[in-house]
Design a protein that fits this description.
It is a single chain. It contains no helices and 17 strands. The protein is mostly beta strands. The strands form 3 sheets. Strands 7, 8, 9, 11, 12, 13, 16 and 17 form an 8-stranded mixed sheet that branches. It has a 5-stranded antiparallel sheet with strand order 6-5-10-15-14, with no helix packed on it. Strand 7 and strand 8 form a beta hairpin.
């Protein structure tokens, strides 16, 4: 069945290392007549992530398996958050650059464009992100003012980073060729930025930058 509990027809169920397989019926049920023994059972459908489970079939007996929930493969690009056995696409948002100058001195703030953006609300803990992006990305914890990055240049021309709190992201084993990332987050605001050595602007010389605003709650 899928995450909503709806049966899935046409799922291929097979025992690995054995020529024993079948397809699920309209009600999601299936029946396999195979030799006894410990087996790894493979569950596959083109629109869902595959699963592998271990079973032990006693000789001459009938084994009823518990329901198995399959997670649908997203069809859209971007980052998707795993929530309740479904990958939900994150809503894109914008980071906006503002600057103030005084002679050679300059200050730049890269803050979320609150009037143009909607946060992705998540709960604290470990997030699992499915990566279907075409460009690299970085995750930053924003300061209380909603800024992911701040820097300044002195009258002598020396640049200093005033705020940059990068969040560590781990790469987990791929699922059917899809990149999966894990990241542990606490309450607060984060910005996941498209990255090419620095924030990626929405257009050449633009003061807005692509990414995702994530608001983490307890």
């Amino acid at each position: 069945m899928d995450a909503s509990g709806t049966p899935i027809q046409g799922v291929k169920v097979s025992l690995q290392a054995a020529d024993c397989n079948t397809l699920t019926k309209e009600d999601g049920r299936f029946e396999l007549k195979c030799d006894a023994g410990p087996w790894k059972i493979s569950i596959r459908h083109p629109s869902y992530f595959s699963k592998t489970e271990t079973i032990d079939v006693p000789d001459g007996s009938h084994l009823a398996l518990a329901h198995s929930t399959l997670t649908q493969v997203p069809t859209s690009d971007g980052l998707h958050l795993l929530r309740d056995a479904s990958f939900i696409p994150l809503t894109p948002t914008l980071l906006e650059r503002s600057s103030n100058s005084n002679g050679e001195a300059k200050r730049r703030d890269f803050c979320v464009a609150r009037n143009k953006s909607v946060p992705n609300i998540v709960s604290s803990g470990t997030l699992r992100l499915l990566d279907r992006t075409t460009t690299p990305w970085r995750m930053f914890r924003m300061d209380p003012a909603g800024c992911a990055y701040r820097d300044s240049r002195s009258q002598e021309g020396r640049w200093v980073v005033e705020h940059r709190d990068r969040t560590e992201v781990s790469l987990e084993p791929e699922i059917d060729g899809n990149r999966i990332h894990g990241v542990k987050v606490g309450p607060g605001s984060y910005f996941i930025a498209e990255w090419s050595g620095f924030f990626v602007p929405t257009a050449p010389k633009a003061s807005t930058y692509k990414g995702y605003w994530v608001q983490v709650q307890d």
